[in-house]
């Protein structure tokens, strides 16, 4: 059994405690600067293994920092990935208690659901497309265990790509039924437009982001499997939410998702 460096284990524990207590911790990037992204992903993996050991179940992955506008918001310039667990998916129409996610913000995404494993090396775009069962409009409720969202790349990687919860639309579309690059997105909060974007904002095309992820997952030994959900990345700026907010997200050709937050 590989022994985890004490610093990795300590930071992983601090992030879990923050999630359990709701008390955010200071940024951790300075502690990781020598190990870089590799050390940050070691922390994420340590907590993934912990959660799997506690009985949580992986159902997919999320890609973060694919939108240039979100990168500018957070001061980073590269995508990252995080794990999606079954208990992170909201039921259709389920009201969300804000306390379930620390410092919650919402962002609109295209969700991709797989009908085949993507476990082979040298994955191509055509191979990815053949493995897609359908796509859906989606909203990710992101959160941060880092104080005041004071994050850079290493902070968010270690913090499971600032994951929280996610909600999916209920009317699946086949890839040939929608142009994911040109589909426009409008997010309204309490009837006011608060975020706009398009599929092209997501690494040029949501499938580009998904292909990056699929290749990365093979590389790190956690390949995507049949039935997995890919949250392909934000189509526009993320938006903070408050108690009682109702957020309606519409993506052209895919439909809408309504996310209601408890008062």
From TrEMBL:
Keywords: Hydrolase, Lyase
Annotated Fumarylacetoacetase-like C-terminal domain residues: 77-261
Lyase listed as a keyword: yes
GO MF term set: hydrolase activity
SUPFAM superfamilies xrefs: FAH (SSF56529)
Pfam family, one: FAA_hydrolase
Superkingdom field: Bacteria
InterPro entries xrefs: Fumarylacetoacetase-like_C (IPR011234), Fumarylacetoacetase_C_sf (IPR036663), Hydratase-Decarb/MhpD_sf (IPR050772)
Protein name: Fumarylacetoacetate hydrolase family protein
Lineage: Bacteria, Pseudomonadati, Pseudomonadota, Betaproteobacteria, Burkholderiales
């Amino acid at each position: 059994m590989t022994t985890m460096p004490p610093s990795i284990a300590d930071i992983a524990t601090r992030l879990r405690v923050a999630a359990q207590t709701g008390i955010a911790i200071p940024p951790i990037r300075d502690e990781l600067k020598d190990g870089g992204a590799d050390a940050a992903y070691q922390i994420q993996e340590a907590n993934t293994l912990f959660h799997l050991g506690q009985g949580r179940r992986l159902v997919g992955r999320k890609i973060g920092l694919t939108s240039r506008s979100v990168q500018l918001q957070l001061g980073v310039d590269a995508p990252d990935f995080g794990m999606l667990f079954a208990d992170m998916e909201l039921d259709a129409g389920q009201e969300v208690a804000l306390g379930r996610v620390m410092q919650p913000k919402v962002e609109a995404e295209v969700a991709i659901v797989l009908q085949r494993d993507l476990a082979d090396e040298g994955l191509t775009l055509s191979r990815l497309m053949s493995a897609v069962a359908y796509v859906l409009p989606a909203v990710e409720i992101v959160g941060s265990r880092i104080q005041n969202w004071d994050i850079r790349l290493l902070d968010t990687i270690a913090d499971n790509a600032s994951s929280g919860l996610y909600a999916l639309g209920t009317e699946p579309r086949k890839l040939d039924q929608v142009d994911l690059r040109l589909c426009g997105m409008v997010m309204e909060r309490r009837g006011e437009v608060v975020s706009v974007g398009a599929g092209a904002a997501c690494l040029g095309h949501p499938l580009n982001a998904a292909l990056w992820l699929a290749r990365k997952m093979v590389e790190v030994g956690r390949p995507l499997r049949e039935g997995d959900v890919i949250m392909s990345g934000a189509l526009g700026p993320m938006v903070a939410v408050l108690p009682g907010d109702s957020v309606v997200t519409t993506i052209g050709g895919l439909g809408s998702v309504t996310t209601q937050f408890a008062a």
